[in-house]
Design a protein that fits this description.
With 353 residues, this protein is of the alpha/beta class. The protein folds into two domains: 3-37 and 260-352, Aspartate Aminotransferase, domain 1; 51-258, Type I PLP-dependent aspartate aminotransferase-like (Major domain) (Aspartate Aminotransferase, domain 2). The chain has 13 helices and 13 strands. The protein has helices spanning 9-12, 39-50, 63-73, 85-97, 112-121, 138-147, 168-177, 189-192, 229-238, 246-257, 259-281, 304-313, 338-352, and strands at 26-27, 80-83, 103-108, 124-129, 152-156, 181-185, 206-211, 223-226, 286-288, 295-300, 316-317, 319-320, 330-334. The strands form three sheets. A seven-stranded mixed β-sheet has the order 2-8-7-6-5-3-4, with helices on both faces. Strand 6, helix 8 (189-192) and strand 7 form a beta-alpha-beta unit. Helix 4 runs parallel beside helix 5 (112-121), helix 4 packs across helix 9 and helix 11 runs parallel beside helix 13 (338-352). The longest helix is centred in the C-terminal third of the chain and has 23 residues, at 259-281. The termini are far apart. The model has no long low-confidence stretch (mean pLDDT 96).
Length: 353
């Protein structure tokens, strides 16, 4: 039996999302928070988790968390869905709008899960290249929607991997002109400080995504979707009833109880980002892009495949985006601790010397 005859063409045509699972002493590839909780906070967190009744199902739909995050965002409870990471929320959006022939628009390069989730749901994908400054190409996007209006448009803000925030006025133009849902993914909000939350009332097609993965809870997979009540009502039908496990619900509540501590960590990481950016600028042949996130996207005047291999040999893992076209010899490095960043710079200088 050829199992492939049973699988959708959209699944057959793609590769699985690749993750490097080998252990590295300096891991700067996944845009995680490099800081762990203090011992005191870890003990409190452990006590919180120990109180979770593992023999019971978690609260369906995370109603207590929905109410708390709604207050934090200044919106109604009927405007929030809690997800198993942003990935699940992206999947819910794609599943909900996947009518026959429906299309999702994404600028490229961007977060890979937009394309993967759209294709898995049966959506057609319109990939529109960013302009020369890695900003949205409005003319090209408008040309595409004139022929095929998208049901869904994903905009990572700041964008991954390019680390920049698209110009706000370009996103506003999309929100005002587009016929479908526009998702502004603010996964790196804690490092950019920029948000479209105040614009929710102005645009009926605006959906915002947030996550706790970048501020210290990547292991717990906690994401939030904020949007218009009518849309959230429909999306909630697609969400699995017990989608967020009880441990993650407890972790999200713990984050809200101690949010100020994690915001201080984000502030410290922003300072290290600026130091790392300055250090990269001093290396001949290395050209870092402006960064609004907790990572830096940089171009090299030499083959990054060789650099990537040598970095791994020295125990340092970053992300290599080397591919024909606009990503030729580009790499992305997550901001680590000051010590990790220093080690990365030291080894990089030795490799290209």
């Amino acid at each position: 039996m050829d199992i492939r005859v049973l699988i959708k063409e959209g699944v057959l045509a793609q590769k699985a999302y690749g993750v490097e699972n080998a252990a590295f002493p300096v891991k700067l590839d996944a845009n995680e928070n490099p800081l762990v909780m203090s011992e005191d906070l870890r003990e409190r967190f452990a006590a919180r988790l120990a109180s979770v009744p593992l023999n019971r199902y978690p609260e369906a739909g995370s109603p207590a968390l929905v109410a708390r995050f709604a207050r934090a965002f200044g919106v109604g409870r009927d405007q929030v869905i809690i997800g198993n990471g942003s990935d699940e929320l992206i999947q819910i959006l794609c599943t909900a709008v996947a009518r026959p022939g429906a299309e999702a628009m994404i600028p490229v390069p961007t977060f890979a899960m937009y394309r993967i989730s759209a294709q898995n749901a049966g959506l057609k994908v319109a990939a529109v290249p960013l302009d020369g400054e890695f900003d949205l190409d409005l003319a090209a996007m408008r040309e595409r929607i004139a022929a095929h209006p998208p049901a869904l448009t994903f905009l990572a803000w700041p964008n991954n991997p390019t680390a920049n925030c698209f110009r706000r006025e370009r996103i506003e133009a999309i929100l005002g002109d587009w016929p479908g849902i526009v998702v502004v993914d603010e996964a790196y909000f804690h490092f950019s400080g920029q948000t479209f939350l105040p614009s929710l009332g102005r645009y009926e097609n605006l959906v915002i995504l947030r996550t706790l993965s970048k501020v210290g809870f990547a292991a717990m997979r906690i994401g939030m979707l904020i949007g218009p009540p009518a849309l959230v009502y429909e999306l909630d039908k697609v969400r699995l009833p017990y989608n967020l496990n009880a441990m993650s619900q407890a972790a999200a509540g713990f984050y809200l109880d101690h949010e100020e501590t994690f915001l201080k960590q984000a502030e410290e990481i922003r300072g290290w980002r600026d130091e790392l950016l300055a250090a990269l600028k001093t290396i001949p042949g290395v050209h870092p892009r402006p960064a609004d996130a907790n990572f830096i996207f940089f171009h090299c005047d030499f083959d990054t495949d060789r650099v990537y291999t040598h970095l791994m040999e020295k125990g340092i893992l970053i992300k290599n985006f080397n591919a024909p076209g606009t990503l030729r010899n580009f790499m992305r490095v997550t901001v680590g601790t000051r010590e990790e960043n220093g080690r990365f710079i030291e080894v990089l200088k030795d490799i290209i010397a």
